[in-house]
Design goal:
Blueprint (H helix, E strand, L loop, with lengths): L6 E2 H9 L2 H8 L8 H17 L13 E9 L4 E11 L4 E8 L9 H18 L5 E6 L4 E6 L2 H20 L9 H6 L7
Parallel strand pairs: 1-3, 4-5
Antiparallel strand pairs: 2-3, 3-4, 5-6
Helix pairs in contact: 1-4
Length: 193
């Protein structure tokens, strides 16, 4: 892993969706295709950024300064990501990642959504030195905000997941197929599996 690039939020979400994607991307070096859904999400993020710079987007965080497209990397853990938005409260030494999703608020949050926020919180704490008690998900299509508690248990699980990703890459061993057949059918490597 010494020569390996940093693992990213994309790697995290791919692993949580189907660990075999890590094998295809990092071991076999088969690139992923960008989907129409991803392109639409990027466009909606730009709209969110323009609106949120002019408005109080979270009533619990009034008038906190916000940073956008914040790239953070941690050499110790070899992980990196670009954060959509970070609200910073310098008076309390706290920060709050805000993840933008071009979708309706689901009945229950997906693990990928939660762990992406946990990763952002972990990096904010490690690199910027702020405490991160919560993160937020902004669902653009339903205009909902969801507050997500960031716990030490979730951060420990995040680091375990990244160790599992590293093991797949180092051992060059194809993980077992996901038990969720919808995911196997729905990913860009369906013809390989």
């Amino acid at each position: 892993m010494a020569s390996q690039l940093y693992l990213t939020a994309t790697d995290l979400m791919n692993y949580l969706y189907d660990p075999r994607i890590i094998y295809f991307v990092h071991v076999l070096k088969i690139p992923q295709a960008t989907t129409v859904k991803e392109l639409e999400g990027r466009k909606k993020y730009d709209e969110f950024k323009n609106k949120s710079t002019r408005n109080k987007i979270i009533k619990e965080l009034p008038k906190l300064p916000k940073l956008y497209n914040v790239y953070l990397c941690c050499d110790e853990n070899r992980i990196a990501t670009k954060i959509d938005c970070v609200a910073i409260d310098n008076t309390k030494n706290k920060a709050y990642p805000i993840q933008v999703k071009y979708s309706l608020k689901p009945k229950a949050l997906y693990r990928t959504q939660v762990f992406q926020l946990v990763m952002e919180a972990f990096l904010i704490e490690k690199v910027l030195g702020y405490k991160v008690p919560y993160g937020y998900l902004k669902f653009l299509r339903s205009n909902d905000f969801v507050k997500v508690l960031i716990t030490s248990k979730l951060k420990s699980e995040l680091l375990w997941i990244f160790k599992e990703i590293e093991n797949i890459i180092k051992q060059e061993k194809l993980p077992k197929e996901t038990k969720d057949k919808r995911k196997a059918i729905d990913n860009c490597y369906k013809n390989i599996m």
